[in-house]
Amino acid sequence: MNSPTSAGARTDELKRAAIGHIDRITPVLVELSHRIHATPELAFAEYQAVRTLIGVARAEGLTIEPSAYGLETAFAVDFGSSLSPKVAIISEYDALPDVGHACAHNLIAAIGLGAALALHTLIDRLPGSIRYLGAPAEERGCGKELLAREGAFEGVDAAMMVHPASWDLKAVRTACIAEVSVVFTGHASHAAVKPEAGRNALDAAVLSYQAIAQLRQHIRDKERVHGVITEGGGAPNVVLGRAACHYFVRAANARELGDLKARVEACFHGAAQASGCTAEVRWADADYLDMRVNEPLADAYEANATLLGREFTPYEQFPAGGTDMANVSHHVPVLHPTIACAPPDVMIHEPEFAAWAASKRGEQALADGAKALAMTAIDFLQDQTLRRRTQAAFASAHVPAA
Fold it and tell me: Which own/partner contact pairs does 344-353 have at CB distance under 8 Å and 24+ positions apart?
């Protein structure tokens, strides 16, 4: 029987080997990151990013399945033993409208690939297996939930990724988010010559906007509703026959989100009725859920990243954001830390953050993130006690409150 000391030494040796491999391929990963950053692509249309990732992965020895789990811009590969445990390593790569990679998904893409490639070189020395997933549509569309519905996380014992930010946090809290698009249909007419014949769809959009503004006075502290009018006309002398809005609705949990969604939808239909129009309300196929933080995995990542010189801030003091990785945390245990690639006064989704995502500091976050991610996967595969604690934390998070 191997002693704990010998097992620990073997784990340390594997980690050193992973770090060494990532050091060797960092220039390739940096170039990949910059290529994705230079051509930002929106959700479900990340064609160049996927080609770039698959091209590098194949050149480094991975056999990638494109269009995996029913999504055109997803990909996947499994390698290692057919026996458990299995760890999923995830890359994201979609961008935001107008501000490009202001969420640094170019770095997430490279971090996930770097960790996967390092683990691939060690797989004959590790128990279990790795599933490397390319996950589209994080910013809009809840791509990981769609992947989960198609079986992407079946047989997976833990799913892991690292997200750039302005702080090093071992985990993040998130709220539930629902996305809704509304089209108001009225009757077009000339605003001066025959206004009585018109039913102004813009009136419906504005009325709904104001109704939701009033609703905000009577929702919980952690609930949010925010949106924009995406179609509001182009000529002032036309009574609009069509107008459109796009909203996000946020709440602490799925039950409260469902209640708030119903109240928001009532604002749309009420505004349409008041203005003589109709409202076509389209909720997204999947809602973003709340993150179930797995403390054992988060602690393991923090310990590994600290060895690389990273300094952590308590995640509990930060407000809840949103990510479809939270949906995955309802299926399997999840690791979702953040790694600082920008100063604390620069927020993700701000234009300035996009510049940091292509900076030297971003390149260092890429290398450190890939190393810490690979090291934590090695810990999970090697350490039965960590796996038991991870599963216990996951199970306890699914026990309903008394």
Answer: 344/166, 344/167, 345/166, 346/166, 347/166, 348/102, 348/103, 348/104, 348/164, 348/165, 348/166, 349/96, 349/99, 349/102, 349/103, 350/99, 350/102, 351/99, 351/102, 353/99, 353/102, 353/103, 353/104, 353/166
